[in-house]
Design brief:
There is one protein chain. By secondary structure, the protein is of the alpha/beta class. It has a domain at 96-169: Dna Ligase, domain 1, CATH 3.30.1490.300. It is 36% helix and 26% strand. The chain has helices at residues 66-79, 108-119, 140-143, 170-183, 193-201, 239-250, 254-264, 273-301, 320-328, 348-354, 359-371; strands at 18-23, 27-36, 39-49, 86-91, 96-104, 130-136, 160-169, 186-192, 208-214, 219-225, 228-235, 305-311, 332-334. A five-stranded mixed beta sheet has the order 3-2-1-4-8. Strands 11-10-9-12-13 form a five-stranded mixed beta sheet, sandwiched between helices. It has a three-stranded antiparallel beta sheet with strand order 5-7-6. A hairpin with a 2-residue loop joins strand 2 and strand 3 (39-49). Helix 6 (239-250) packs antiparallel against helix 8.
């Protein structure tokens, strides 16, 4: 199972519809696309909150049973009027272990065995209980060597090689396979959400960018350089933490707090100063941690981060971008994954607004489309 498939591959050869499925902690997002005249064309998409299926409020993170998740997934497929069972499915970052390790450089025939042995030090369960994938990080001189044949692997240099290692517990895969069986979907792969998101929000280039992905329960940080993942971090704060903080501080029900957050955000003005202060307190922590990660990377590699890309439903909070620009003192942009699809022109603004929420689903669908021969 190739978790590290090229994040920039997009197109297949036949006009066949495919689905991208993203089952997050608080909502399911689905996207159906097909290829037409060399473009990935959007056919339908949809989002469904999971809170009510778990007996809690919209916007809250849930931990549903397989049966409840299957029910929710079936409901959103029906509501979105999807017409295919062919799909790819995202796995939550929390179900994986991602490490960067250094191994002695050696013959390519032996390096796989060495990586597997070395990875045991970083995986807290028996190696037989996980699916393991890895990718050698090319050294910069090898990356810049344009004399290499297209698609060839640069030779292993003397010394050590840096390797990206990904492990996913077999139980997580089995759970998602069971979900596919219950819903009749045909998922040809399961991919960690990180790689799906990057496929949808990045353009190819050599600059180092940081992706800030705020979900309901956590905020994920990814730093990418030359199309390669260089570091990933999880901050244990998300959009639901803002809602719960508002509820507690203003002594109002969670549902009302969620509504106030969505309606006013950070732009409520003087009459909502307390609301703004509560939201800012949570975001200040997130931005502090993100800045710490960014500065650590810049010091380690002596390279600047050229752009901050915002994705995930949490970044749609009113005033989020302005506060992020002030905090990061950098170029901050919204992710625009729908920009990689052909969509109705009259809905352009709507898709720009919805884009950050659908990055994972679109990235999954793009990969599934690329597999069609």
């Amino acid at each position: 199972m190739d978790f590290l498939k090229n994040i920039f591959s997009i197109f297949g050869k036949k006009e066949q519809s495919v689905l991208g499925i993203d089952i997050g902690s608080s909502a399911i997002k689905i996207v159906q696309i097909k290829k037409k005249k060399g473009r990935a064309v959007l056919e339908t998409y949809g989002e469904l909150a999971l809170g009510p299926y778990g007996g809690t409020e919209i916007g809250r993170a849930t931990n549903l049973t397989l049966e409840k998740t299957a029910q929710a997934l079936t409901d959103i497929l029906r509501e979105a009027k999807t017409t295919t069972k062919t799909c790819g499915t995202a796995l939550p970052l929390s179900s994986s272990l991602i490490s960067f390790i250094n191994v002695p450089a050696t013959d390519s025939k032996q390096i796989g065995e060495i990586i597997t042995l070395e990875a045991r030090k970083y995986i807290p369960v028996p190696i037989t209980e996980v699916l393991l994938d890895w990718s050698i990080i090319p050294k910069e001189d090898a990356i810049e060597d344009t004399s290499l044949p297209a698609g060839s692997q640069p030779p292993v240099n003397k010394g050590t090689s840096e390797v990206l290692v990904v492990a996913i517990h077999n139980e997580s895969i089995a759970n998602y396979q069971g979900l596919m069986a219950k819903t009749g979907l045909q998922s040809s792969f399961f991919e960690i959400e990180l790689f799906s998101s990057l496929r949808a929000v990045l353009d190819q280039g050599i600059q180092a960018n940081m992706v800030v992905d705020m979900g309901a329960s956590t905020t994920k940080l990814y730093i990418i350089e030359r199309g390669l993942l260089r570091t990933s971090h999880i901050i244990n704060r998300g959009s639901q933490d803002i809602t719960l903080a508002i509820s507690k501080s203003l002594s109002i029900p969670v549902t009302e707090a969620e509504n106030m957050k969505r309606v006013y955000g950070l732009t409520g003005g003087p009459e909502h100063k307390e609301l703004t202060d509560v939201i800012s307190l949570t975001l200040d922590y997130v931005f502090y941690e993100a800045n710490r990660v960014m500065l650590g990377y810049q010091r380690k590699y002596n390279k600047d981060i050229s752009k901050i890309i915002l994705t995930g439903g949490g970044v749609l909070l009113k005033g989020f971008t302005e506060l992020a620009k002030t905090s990061f003192q950098n170029n901050v942009v919204y992710a625009d994954p729908f920009g990689k699809l052909e969509t109705p022109a009259f809905l352009a603004e709507q898709f720009k607004t919805a884009g950050p929420e659908f990055a994972v689903a679109i990235g999954i669908a793009l990969r599934r489309l690329s597999e069609i021969q």
